[in-house]
């Protein structure tokens, strides 16, 4: 320690100094710790570091973005909105009364054109908009215990108001199950019906650990007010994958849910005829309904956001590093300058 | 039996008490009137039964709480913290169905936080309690029916007669009745009151002085009437009725509690003030609970965040209300899947208003993540650990006394980094309270080659050539010391006159006279240790003792004082043998602060009449005879040198008197002394003045009021750091000024503004006897002096001249009055150094409070004695010196250090670090909670503000506890912007704390903004990337739990990596904590996800099944992490490169390797000096500048 920097407490008292020095040769890591002198890395944001860091970010993110974007672009996706078109012209003025009227047939026939080759498996989704599956009242209205153990489990108070009907418990109880989506789709290509695989569309953990194998629907949708789909009372919840998918609530008010898989390739310019049962009421709250056919890539479905954003951030970093470099060269730092260290600050 | 003989002496003869003859006039006429109503029936405590007033007992309590008041008082303390109130509210609300979480998770942390802090308070107060118990149970002999019994202090009552023996403390304020000396004098040590170690003389009334034996008090009856309890230590007015006679009482008869009886075998006294009525207790202020500025600002930030929280809740609840009210409309249910027709009050569209209000409460709880409950706990933990580091620092360990630094409260660590003004006690803090005779100038030749602390410090600064010289001298000194055991009060080395070799010097006769004068002209009393035969001295002031000791060491041993003579062993220059000689003591012309000199007139054995005189140079030189000025020029040069080295000088001169002249003088003098008129003192003075003339100069002495080691260096560093240093001392003005020079707080060429009560006009007023008019005029004079000072100040601002303000206690009383204190403070702040002398403990506290409140800056008080307690408690930080003066100061301090010099490291290193750590830590705390809280808020916008969160309940609860807490604590405990050496090398760095650059509102808001920015990036990037999206090859869709987990992962990464970015000092501990926190999140996910779905609910297998196998999850994490850190990174890169703060500059210097370049460092140091900077570097600088100017002039 040179004279300049040494504290007086060190330089002034030879006694305490002696102690500090005497111990120095055999100072343990713990001593260093106690004296707050642990070896440490002290990063300083010097221009070299900053420029390198920006360059590095750019050189990682641009290629990454390109790869991501490519993955997203190679996914083929057909989105078809049907909620308005599938209402007969006579009812277009009052869609709510149409959907509520059980006597009107809800069949609807549409055709979709495949514009690009789609490789199996092709995933079928339905998409709902403006539907608050993440509403606190909605989300809380279920009983996980009942779903797993059946009506033997009596504490279903969380299921209100879909808890009891006519004094008998409802299985599965709660608003989520009660509002189960009930539109159905069948697909025909050319003359042959396209087989839709509706098995294994739910998370395995849900099927195996949250929905009981011996729990059968009881007293479901028997109330005065019918919500959504009915369930086959002879099939245990474990196998009701529609329900399981539906009950995995969505995060945002616009969401897709997996309906099934087509396990055949679709060629470009193929025309697929869809037979829809337009049962589900989204009209009263103005929600859209869409049918989605999509292939997947290694990143999942079609979404350019991640790739584009990566490229954007990457290229901004490169620009920043260049700007920084230019600034650094133009305004050279005066290394011997001490103006910052004076009282004029 | 020297002792026995001395006992019977009438020592009053060598002191001319003026107050002993106080007559009933002036103030004494007030006795019995309002404010002077106390009546004490001596020796008759039962008499009070008849009186309406009850005087308090002698029981003393200094604790903050009693058993009864503890709970309400400490709870009140706790809920002064805004956050605690809020969490209490949340805890109460959480028992209702409104709560989004379980009640336990809200109540438990609150109970733990408050319980821990209250526990700490109990422990601290218990220590004080134990001290009280010890004090209250001390024993004293009290008179009970003719016999003196041992009685506990707490059982004393007003009117009791007590007998206090040698070296005992007085148990209450007493009126001295009689002592073991015949004329009822006693010596008192008042260290605990004013820090002065010299003995004070008290004298009882003549009327009671004969009550010298226990039995005589059997039938003693007297009545004391006096003033009501007050805090003024130096005044007392009362009267004593004994039989038919009435006698006036003055401070001369008052013995104060906590002072000590010295050199007197016993005294008898009557108790007048007890317990909390005593002057000491009146001077003590209750222990305040101190909070640091940062903590108070933290409260404000909490308020601000609370406002944000309320706003967010308001927005949320209004939108929720509107959405809900729309659920039933147009005759049908819109959002039918919520069953708005069959609902509870919380979601009822028909009563949407009420639902919205209830939702507001839910939101208040939901967004509570904005306000970090763990903040205060974390702060407490960090502070305790910081204190441990302070206590452990070997560089603040005083080996000689085995005393490390001790942070008694950990509340104020960061406040140490913001100190603007240091208010320092002098005795025992700056100085060792020992006077050492170090140099003298005899017959124009300077003797003594000792080196003072100041010279040492200056020499090291000047460069190697001189420092080499110093080391040589020092080496020399070391040798000399080894030869002879060092003598307290004597640090004089010079072979030319030591061991009798002065005989061979050119002016041996002058030297002989000089030394003889030292041995005779004083009022000390010798005491011979019967075992060793060595003589020691009891003197009124330590410098007087130093003279007598010096004379003894140089061969003129003063060994006996009788009423009429002084006897010496002295060296005869002719024979070279030691002979005994006796001098007849004829008159003592006392020292007074206006005379600034004392003389004795003695008759030598040869019959010559000698007047020996010593005094300050200012009064002595004008009294020299024409033929006595032989060495005057040389002596003046030496005196200036000595003064510059911080030494206290005294000029010695003598004269022979004719018989006739003496006879005439003695007659006049005796007459003046015995007069009882009002201007007796003046008469004595004028008579003395007549004879103290035509003196022959002998030389001068230089006594060092020994500074503690390292004090000048420490003051120099602190001054360079821009800290103002005020000295508040109970000492005389001359002493204080001397120390000012010694510490380089004053220097040649600095304009001194003296505000003095001893002006001639004030004296005239005092004589006139009209006290109110005198006070009035006195105050006016103080105001005038202050205004004059301010004019000087205004002038000096242009000429860049440093000013020093020196004010004495009496003037200070007026300067601190409400209408004057503002201008006084204005003046004081403008001055480079401020010295307050003769100040009482209360005044010290008042000055401290004035500076603290009016400037709003942080004050630090440092002291070692009981007289500093008030100041220590009043200041933002009180530092006690755990020296020799007892423990009162340490007990009431916040941090105790063993030596003043440790203050440098404590402030510049620990203070700076702690301030930096704490401010960064708190800012970061808000950052991380805002970043987290806003993701919750944004999500609400997508969940129609229903109060649903995207995160699992336990993610929420563990956020502050497990995933983000340890790195913050590590930051708060370990981070260092620059190393300790660099902190000390660039003291200006300390200004970052004083100017509060790191915890300014703009910086805090900057962090908050960064938090919002991070939250925005995290939230919107996550939902954009995952919106109704197949997120992996298997075609699965993102659900609420997947999105929540992904977002939470991003938050954990971002918040921890932000920490990594803002850390300056990366030890393995930081690495461990930061990366472990992130890894722990994944471990938690795995473990929690593996639990039964009944426990883990939505988190069941979410990581292992859904997230981990999906490349998009990992890609998203990386992308969000980098994007949210980019703004901060860019900001700090630009700031570092183009607008660096001070510590960043130093980091640059370090990175460039310039810190080892001495030239560069010198340049940096020079830049940190301002014209008003004090300290020896500045002093050296101004001196060299002065000489440069002179050169140019030539």
TrEMBL record, chain A:
UniProt main location, coarse: membrane
GO cellular component, one term: plasma membrane
Keyword Transmembrane helix recorded: yes
Spans through the membrane: 44-66, 305-327
Family of the protein in this entry: Belongs to the CDC50/LEM3 family.
Name under which the protein is recorded: ALA-interacting subunit
Source organism: Rubroshorea leprosula
Localization annotation: Membrane
TrEMBL record, chain B:
Pfam families referenced in this protein's UniProt entry, alphabetically: Cation_ATPase, PhoLip_ATPase_C, PhoLip_ATPase_N
Chain positions covered by the region annotation Disordered: 1-21
Ranges of residues in domain P-type ATPase C-terminal: 890-1140
Bias-annotated ranges (Basic residues): 1-10
Residues bound to Mg(2+): 425, 427, 864, 868
Cofactor dependence: Mg(2+)
Catalytic activity reported: ATP + H2O + phospholipidSide 1 = ADP + phosphate + phospholipidSide 2
Protein name, entry field: Phospholipid-transporting ATPase
GO MF term (any one): magnesium ion binding
Membrane-spanning segments: 301-322, 354-377, 925-945, 957-974, 1004-1026, 1072-1091, 1111-1131
């Amino acid at each position: 320690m040179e004279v300049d920097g040494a504290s007086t407490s060190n330089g002034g008292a030879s006694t305490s100094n002696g102690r500090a020095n005497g111990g120095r040769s055999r100072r343990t890591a713990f001593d260093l710790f106690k004296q707050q002198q642990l070896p440490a890395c002290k990063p300083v944001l010097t221009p070299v570091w900053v420029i390198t860091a920006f360059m590095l970010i750019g050189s990682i993110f641009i290629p990454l973005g390109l790869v991501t974007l490519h993955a997203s672009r190679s996914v083929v996706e057909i989105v078809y909105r049907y909620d308005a078109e599938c209402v007969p012209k006579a009812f277009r003025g009052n869609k709510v009364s149409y959907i509520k009227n059980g006597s009107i047939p809800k069949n609807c026939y549409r055709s979709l054109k495949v514009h690009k080759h789609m490789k199996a498996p092709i995933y079928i989704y339905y998409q709902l908009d403006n539907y608050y599956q993440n509403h606190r009242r909605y989300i809380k209205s279920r009983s996980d215990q009942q779903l797993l153990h059946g009506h033997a489990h009596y504490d279903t108070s969380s299921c209100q108001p879909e808890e009891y009907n006519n004094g008998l418990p409802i299985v599965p109880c709660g608003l989520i199950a009660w509002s189960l989506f009930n539109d159905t789709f069948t697909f025909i290509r050319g003359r042959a019906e396209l087989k839709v695989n509706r098995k294994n569309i739910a998370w395995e953990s849900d099927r195996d650990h949250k929905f009981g194998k011996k729990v059968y629907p009881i007293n479901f949708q028997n109330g005065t007010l019918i919500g959504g789909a009915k369930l086959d009372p002879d099939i245990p919840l474990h196998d009701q994958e529609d329900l399981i998918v539906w009950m995995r609530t969505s995060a945002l008010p616009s969401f897709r849910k997996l309906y099934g898989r087509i396990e055949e390739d679709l060629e470009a310019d193929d025309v697929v005829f869809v037979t829809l049962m337009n049962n589900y009421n989204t009209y009263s709250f103005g929600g859209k309904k869409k049918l989605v056919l999509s292939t997947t890539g290694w990143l999942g479905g079609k979404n350019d956001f991640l790739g584009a954003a990566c490229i954007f951030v990457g290229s901004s970093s490169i620009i920043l590093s260049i700007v920084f470099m230019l600034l650094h060269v133009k305004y050279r730092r005066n290394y011997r300058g001490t103006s910052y260290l004076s009282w004029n600050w | 039996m020297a002792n026995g003989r001395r006992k019977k002496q009438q020592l009053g003869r060598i002191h001319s008490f003026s107050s002993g003859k106080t007559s009933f006039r002036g103030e004494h006429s007030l006795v019995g009137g309002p404010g002077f109503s106390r009546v004490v029936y001596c020796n008759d405590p039962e008499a009070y039964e008849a009186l309406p007033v009850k005087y308090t007992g002698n029981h003393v309590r200094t604790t903050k709480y009693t058993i009864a008041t503890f709970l309400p008082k400490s709870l009140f303390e706790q809920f002064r913290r805004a956050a605690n109130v809020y969490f209490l509210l949340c805890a109460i609300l959480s028992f209702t169905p409104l709560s989004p979480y379980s009640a336990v998770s809200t109540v438990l942390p609150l109970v733990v936080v408050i319980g821990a802090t209250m526990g700490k308070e109990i422990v601290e107060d218990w220590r004080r309690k134990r001290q009280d118990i010890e004090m209250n149970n001390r024993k004293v002999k009290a008179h009970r029916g003719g016999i003196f019994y041992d009685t506990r202090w707490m059982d004393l009552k007003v009117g009791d007669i007590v007998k206090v023996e040698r070296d005992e403390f007085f148990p209450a304020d007493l009126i001295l009745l009689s002592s073991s000396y015949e004329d009822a004098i006693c010596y008192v040590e008042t260290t605990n009151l004013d820090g002065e170690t010299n003995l004070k003389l008290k004298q009882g009334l003549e009327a009671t002085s004969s009550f010298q034996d226990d039995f005589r008090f059997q039938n003693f009856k007297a009545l004391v009437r006096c003033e009501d309890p007050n805090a003024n230590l130096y005044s007392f007015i009362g009267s004593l009725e004994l039989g038919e006679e009435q006698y006036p009482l003055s401070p001369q008869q008052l013995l104060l509690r906590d002072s000590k009886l010295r050199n007197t075998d016993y005294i008898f006294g009557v108790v007048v003030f007890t317990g909390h009525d005593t002057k000491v207790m009146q001077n003590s202020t209750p222990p305040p609970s101190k909070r640091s500025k940062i903590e108070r600002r933290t409260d404000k930030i909490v308020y601000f965040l609370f406002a944000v929280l309320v706003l967010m809740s308001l927005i949320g609840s209004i939108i929720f209300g509107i959405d809900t009210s729309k659920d039933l409309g147009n005759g049908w249910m819109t959002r039918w899947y919520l069953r708005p027709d069959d609902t509870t009050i919380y979601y009822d569209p028909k009563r949407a208003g009420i639902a919205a209000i209830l939702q507001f409460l839910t939101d208040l709880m939901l967004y509570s993540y904005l306000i970090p409950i763990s903040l205060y706990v974390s702060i407490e933990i960090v502070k305790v650990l910081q204190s441990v580091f302070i206590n452990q620092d070997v560089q603040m360990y005083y080996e000689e006394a085995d005393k490390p630094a001790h942070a008694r409260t950990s509340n104020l660590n960061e406040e140490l980094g913001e100190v603007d003004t240091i208010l320092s006690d002098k005795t025992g803090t700056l100085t060792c309270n020992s006077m050492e005779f170090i140099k003298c100038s005899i017959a124009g030749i300077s003797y003594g080659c000792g080196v003072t602390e100041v010279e040492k410090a200056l020499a090291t600064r000047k460069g190697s050539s001189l420092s080499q010289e110093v080391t040589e001298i020092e080496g020399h000194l070391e040798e000399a010391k080894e030869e002879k055991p060092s003598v307290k009060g004597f640090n004089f080395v010079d072979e030319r006159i030591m061991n009798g070799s002065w005989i061979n010097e050119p002016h041996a006769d002058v030297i002989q006279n000089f030394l003889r004068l030292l041995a005779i002209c004083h009022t000390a009393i010798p005491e011979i240790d019967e075992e060793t035969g060595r003589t020691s001295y009891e003197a009124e002031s330590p410098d007087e003792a130093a003279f007598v000791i010096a004379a003894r060491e140089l061969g003129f041993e003063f060994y006996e004082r009788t009423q009429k003579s002084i006897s010496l062993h002295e060296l005869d220059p002719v024979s070279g043998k030691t002979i005994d000689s006796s001098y007849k003591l004829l008159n003592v012309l006392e020292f007074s602060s206006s005379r600034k000199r004392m003389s004795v007139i003695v008759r030598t054995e040869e019959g010559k009449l000698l007047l020996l005189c010593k005094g300050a140079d200012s009064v002595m030189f004008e009294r020299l005879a024409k033929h006595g000025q032989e060495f005057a020029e040389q002596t003046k040069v030496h005196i200036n040198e000595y003064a510059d080295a911080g030494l206290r000088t005294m000029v010695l001169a003598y004269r022979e008197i004719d018989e006739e002249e003496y006879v005439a003088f003695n007659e006049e003098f005796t007459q003046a002394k015995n007069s009882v008129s009002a201007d007796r003192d003046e008469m004595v003075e004028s008579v003395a003045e007549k004879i103290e003339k035509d003196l022959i100069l002998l030389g001068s002495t230089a006594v060092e009021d020994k500074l503690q080691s390292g004090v000048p260096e420490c003051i120099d560093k602190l001054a360079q750091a821009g800290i103002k240093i005020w000295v508040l001392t109970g000492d005389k003005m001359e002493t204080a000024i001397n120390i000012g020079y010694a510490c380089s707080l004053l220097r040649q060429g600095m304009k001194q503004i003296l505000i003095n009560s001893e002006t001639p006009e004030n004296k005239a007023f005092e004589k006139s006897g009209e006290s109110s008019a005198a006070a009035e005029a006195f105050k006016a004079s103080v105001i005038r002096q202050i205004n004059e000072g301010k004019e000087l100040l205004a002038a000096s601002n242009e000429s860049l001249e440093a000013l020093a303000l020196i004010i004495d206690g009496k003037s200070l009383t007026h300067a601190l009055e409400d209408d004057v204190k503002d201008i006084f403070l204005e003046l004081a702040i403008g001055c480079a150094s401020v010295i307050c002398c003769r100040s009482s403990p209360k005044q010290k506290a008042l000055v401290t409070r004035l500076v603290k409140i009016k400037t709003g800056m942080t004050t630090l008080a440092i002291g070692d004695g009981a007289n500093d307690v008030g100041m220590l408690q009043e200041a933002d930080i009180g530092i006690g010196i755990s020296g020799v003066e007892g423990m009162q100061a340490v007990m009431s301090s916040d941090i105790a250090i063993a030596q003043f010099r440790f203050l440098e490291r404590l402030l510049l290193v620990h203070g700076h670090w702690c301030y930096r750590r704490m401010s960064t830590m708190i800012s970061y705390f808000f950052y991380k909670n805002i970043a987290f809280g806003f993701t919750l808020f944004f999500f609400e916008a997508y969940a129609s503000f229903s109060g649903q969160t995207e995160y699992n309940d336990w993610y929420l609860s563990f956020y502050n506890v497990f995933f983000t807490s340890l790195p913050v604590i590590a930051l708060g405990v370990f981070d260092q912007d620059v190393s300790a050496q660099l902190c000390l090398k660039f003291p200006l760095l300390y200004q970052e704390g004083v100017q509060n650059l790191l915890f300014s509102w703009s910086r805090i808001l900057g962090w908050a903004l960064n938090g919002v920015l991070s939250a925005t990036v995290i939230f919107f990037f996550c939902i954009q990337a995952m919106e109704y999206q197949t997120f992996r090859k298997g075609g699965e869709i993102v659900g609420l739990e997947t999105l929540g987990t992904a977002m939470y992962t991003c938050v954990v990464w971002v918040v921890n990596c932000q920490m990594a970015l803002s850390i300056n000092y990366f030890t393995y501990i930081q690495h461990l904590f930061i990366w472990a926190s992130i890894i722990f999140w994944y471990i938690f996910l795995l473990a929690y996800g593996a639990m039964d779905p009944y426990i883990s609910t939505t988190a069941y297998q979410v990581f292992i099944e859904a997230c981990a196998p999906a490349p998009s999850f990992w890609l998203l994490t990386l992308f969000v992490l980098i994007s949210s850190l980019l703004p901060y990174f860019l900001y700090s890169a630009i700031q570092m490169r183009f607008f660096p703060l001070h510590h960043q500059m130093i980091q640059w210097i370090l990175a460039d390797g310039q810190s080892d370049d001495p030239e560069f460092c010198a340049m940096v140091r020079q830049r940190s000096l301002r014209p008003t900077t004090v300290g020896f570097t500045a002093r050296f600088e101004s001196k060299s500048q002065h000489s440069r100017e002179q050169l140019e002039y030539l």
